[in-house]
Amino acid sequence: MSYISSYYHCVFSTKQRRPLIHSPLRERLWPFLGGIARQNDMKALQIGGMPDHVHILLSLPATLSIAKALQLIKGGSSKWVHETFQDQWAFNWQVKYGAFGVSVSLLDKTMEYIRTQEEHHRKMSFQEEFLALLKRHRVPYDERYLWE
User: Does pTM top 0.85 for this prediction?
Assistant: First the structure.
């Protein structure tokens, strides 16, 4: 047996950052995202976000890449939203995402950050937040292609 500690703070937005995740949808979407994670041997330690984006703190098994994990979560949830909420025909996730490794020592701090998204976004837009995450994690980027 292998013993793996693999945690990721994942961030992705709705297509064109449309504010489509309102309270009735959010109340059901966050648990649904957690259910997709569980069905695929992942653990969603914390889920939160705003009307235009989601943050998930995921623990991944050794056999699952972050790309596959987010494909399962985004694809499964988008299909569910279309089937469950007839008025959400415009709902889609942006293709791109951010996934940032989190050490065990920072799990609690990351969960608190995700829990307090509404408070956090009174001071900073999604774009500012995402750029700050890229810089903090030293992820190279070209801003010309960042918001496509």
Answer: yes
Full residue range of the structural domain in which residue 127 is found: 7-146
Tell whether 1 is covered by a domain. no
The CATH number of the domain where 80 resides is what? Answer: 3.30.70.1290
Counted domains in the chain: 1
What pLDDT band is residue 6 in, cutting at 50, 70 and 90?
very high
Place of tokens 């297509």: 15
| Geometric angle at alpha carbon 104, from 97 and 114, rounded to 5° | 45
Q: Is 112 exposed, middle or buried (0-12, 13-18, 19+ CB in 10 A)?
A: exposed
107-138 pLDDT, tens digit per residue, is 999 999 999 998 888 999 999 999 999 999 99
